[in-house]
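--- STAGE predict ---
source: upstream dedup step, 1 unique chain passed
mode: sequence only
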Amino acid sequence: MNSNFYGKSIRRESKMNTVEIIFYTRQDCHLCVDMASKLNAFIAHHSDLGEQTAVNVVMRDIDDHSQWYQRYREYVPVLVVNDEEVCHYFFDGDELMHAIKGQSDSSVRL
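--- STAGE serialize ---
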């Protein structure tokens, strides 16, 4: 947040939490395309998260790394938050919101 103090711009630091969503996907996957679309709609619909929580989506193609392929080849698409699988095959907005709020709450505790 920026404000003006005697003609000088001052930036106030906000305590914003960042939640990283890892999206395991692969090319030519119709379920992946569907989940990506629903994830984008979810983020747009829940833009109010942006005031306190920043959401960062990291796309990972499982064919790029053998470990990802071995772990997720039968389950793509997969959403992971805080090292926990949130959903696979089909988007689950309730589970994703629970995971986001859970990570956001736990990151505030010291």
